[in-house]
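Bug #77: duplicate submission created two jobs. Keeping one. Sequence:
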Amino acid sequence: MPSQPTYRIDLSYEDNYKQGPFFKDEIPKRKITRRENFLGFEVNSRLGIPAGPLLNANWVLTYAALGFDLPVYKTVRTHFAPSHPAPNCMILDLQEAIKEKEIGGQLKVAPNAGADWTGDISITNSFGMPSRDPKEWQADVEKAKAGMGEGQVLIVSVVGTPGEGVDLAEDYALGARMAVEAGAEIVEINLSCPNVISGEGSLFTDPNASSRISAKVKRAIGETPLLIKMGYISDPSRLTQVILANAPHIEGVASVNTLPFEVVAPDGSPALPGEGRLRSGVCGAAIKNCAMSQASRLIKIRQMGGYDFVVVGVGGAMSPQDIRDYFSLGVDAVMSATGAMWDPLLAYRFWKEGQEGA
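Kept job's structure:
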């Protein structure tokens, strides 16, 4: 796996937005002989990038060219919102899989870890769901859509913003309509970011609040497929309640959006500067087991309820074998963020191994 990620963790979000992605190698060519189905779309593969690394059209189109056929444009809002200050990504001193009982605890940043880190890659990311002004991101989504290749589908992630006098569900719906107007072929509503101080990051745990939003968004976007992005829910009963409440309004569930932890420096001080940033999202190799466990639960809930929504497996997909592990569960698509950041040829390697094994 290359040691230089496409996202420069030593630079700010703004620098990465304007200068990235940092990939200068030749893009290998795939030969597509058979397409697959995802929510009625014929796609080259059911492999994508979740909302996170794809900051704008340049990022979307680079990764689409690299063979990630279901790219998710990073979460947008109905108004401008700044990113948390740098650093936004830090490598964690974490070489073993996270256990469910450990979620919410404390983790340490790896001392002096940079782009040359040679261990398993697990990171904390803390952006706070920044967004360009709608006029800017809508034009950029149009650019991304226009540059997509055959057999590829553009998904746009949307979040609502709570505030005085704001109907949160209406704000989600307005953002979703804007995304569709700009060219989104599938909309994903983010109910699960752990890196925000306000309440929009924990909606996925509330059956009533989340289903009110998904219902309103679905009415707003009509036949455009709707996904909900979830975090990890340890209580199987609560997970079932959330899914059954949302199932009538959605076409799919993407899970998981990182795991929340308190992240500290090697000396025990907060690793990330600023209010409300002690707790941030953890992703990468160490969350695979928990993420796959929830994906498996979602598939069982779907079967028991007789639903046909798709399940998108997200979390810890770092290698072609990890991707195969997810598909062996029965998920309908797999997405990789951290893995794809450190190994931009991951989708190509997955495709090539499939060709050699055919």
